[in-house]
Amino acid sequence: xxxxxxxxxxxxxxxxxxxxxEKVNLTLHKMFPHAPIFTSIFNPDTIKGFEKAAIxxxxxxxxxxxxxxxxxxxxxxPYAYELFNLSxxxxxxxxxxxxxxxxxTKPETMHICYCHTPMRYAWDNWQSYIRDYKMNWLFKNCxxxxxxxxxxxxxxxxxxVDHFIANSEITKKRIEKYYRKSSDIIHPMIDSKKFQISxxxxxxxxxxxxxxxxxxxxxxxxxxxxxxxxxxxxxEGISGRELKSKAHSNIEFLGNIDDKNLQKIYSECEALIFPxxxxxxxxxxxxxxxxxxxxAFNEGGATDTIIEGETGIFFKKQxxxxxxxxxxxxxxxxxxxxxxxxxxxxEKFDEDEFKKNITNFIxxxxxxxxxxxxx
Length: 375
What we know:
13 strands; Rossmann fold; alpha/beta; 13 helices; seven-stranded parallel sheet; globular
């Protein structure tokens, strides 16, 4: 059977919050618009672009607060994905940072997983994830007790995947470490055409993302409270109230804004502040596509996309002193950063390149799959 005739299904983790994984999901949907989508929870009020998609949700969809507090039902996620019936499909493509890769397919079905990371809350970050997450002590104790079972399931479910794609070098290493599986790296993408270089900057620094503990907005606020430079923060999240209470008057919280305004804010900022360890990180690419450099922590996916001294500056420790020092280095050398050079680098991660690489990967694996089956 040719690749074009193969019946394809897409499997996504919960579709409730916008982030880097959701942008990959939308691109996969655009690539395979007729492929049905299977997911545990879908909130059409917050996730756009899937209006014409055939979406099948799990039983969790109907449980109280599922669309806004999916964390309440993490222990049910493995069961939910195992219940999906994918027996009629030739190729299953899962986009997974949690349980989507755990679907069960028949032996004749090829399963490719685009892995954003092995479960953060089950493996290398599990202790800090539970400690820092804003939930009452009872939920935290329950999470600690159930995480062992989830970890066992996650390891076993990785064996159901025939081919892994990692989104970055650090994710590739995690897949090797926790799943004992090899993977190929295909970086996520941006639509670089949406972003433009501004004629001038407005002197403020920028941070973009969900206001949750591991994003390290507390570090950003601590630093900018000390140095007093103007900072704009885009995004909302469970840590929002606490962060706002700590911020001085030089820090402005913009909440969630539409794409057009975000593009403008990117292009007019001095630099993007990116102090967290991400599996990849879309926001640095969006800033760079706008011609703006990134001041980033020197770990994780940021090291796949930022060139020291050319498109950004790295700092080595997640402390206010190190972040402050990096900002001072940028201020002394800001004239050395060329907006056109930065944007040209970001264009290497354009959506068209991602689509081409994904398509070629699936075609190659499918041809091998068919040959091994003697078809």
